Amino acid sequence: MALIAKGQIFAAAALAMLGLTAGSAYAAPQCGNDAGGFATWLESYKAEAKARGIDTAPLAGVKYDTGVIHIDRNQHGAFKGTLDQFMARRAPASYVKRAKSLWKANAGTFAKIEQRYGVQPEVLLAIWGMETGFGANSGNKSVFQPLATLAYDCRRSAYFTNELDSALEIAQKGYISASQMKGAGFGELGQTQFLPSKYLQYAVDFDGDGRRDLIHSTGDVLASTANFLKGHGWQAGAGYGPGEPNYRIWNEWNRATIYQQALSRFATQIAH
Q1: Is the dihedral of CA 20, 230, 4, 129 positive or negative?
Q2: pLDDT exceeding 90 applies to what percent of the chain?
Q3: What are the angstrom distances between the C-alpha of 154 and each of 31, 46, 86, 94?
Q4: CB 7 within 8 A of CB 1
Q5: DSSP class of residue 186?
Q6: Bridge partners of residue 204, in order along the sequence
Q7: Calpha distance 203→225 (Å, rounded)
Q8: CATH second-level architecture of 65-271?
Q9: Which of 43, 114, 122, 131 is catalytic?
Q10: Which of 15, 184, 193, 247 is least buried, going by the fewest C-beta atoms within 10 A?
Q11: Residue 203 confidence (pLDDT) above 90
């Protein structure tokens, strides 16, 4: 969920209530702006998390991630340039062709999802394509190190502490094993890049196998994305271009204006 504000290498959206930690109040460990205090912070976080009933075993071996800090400090550079330039990078003509092919190959799944959630197939295809190239670039880096680093970082410590709590909850409850919780490097999960709190809120088991699998199941990926949009007010069958009812919902997916414009244009190209 791209630009942190979802989610998406950038993520988005508002904070979620957690199953394990909802209503829990605790004194946050001291944040920092460099690697110096990270080890101390991590031990403090682990102790407090354990007191709140959270299993912190997945944090074994976690270190301060300078790479994710660099990305976080410079993410706006990814949204520079004109809309045409952005589209050429993130939604080229080859992606439009690929999206149409995927729509045809999965027509039944898209029809069922639209019937249940009211979100048009081209909308889901646009998000799927722009986030990970239709699942080809979901990432293979554990979510725990970047999330711990960003939870420690003073810039948005509370926001990412919530995401770290959520990631640990996903592993603890067995929704996804800790070893499979990998993404593009910013703590996101799956083919449309859900931040962990959004997984807990919106991920669904659409294929009926008993798991909410946003990593391997196309049905779960697309239905969960549709559920996110519906949960943020998507109106079934309504337009999603500038000035139309659903255009404002793009902002819930990504806060970057150029990203919203690109998703709208990409979806329109897929539909025609």
Answers
A1: positive
A2: 83
A3: 5, 18, 30, 41
A4: yes
A5: S
A6: none
A7: 8
A8: Orthogonal Bundle (1.10)
A9: 131
A10: 15
A11: yes
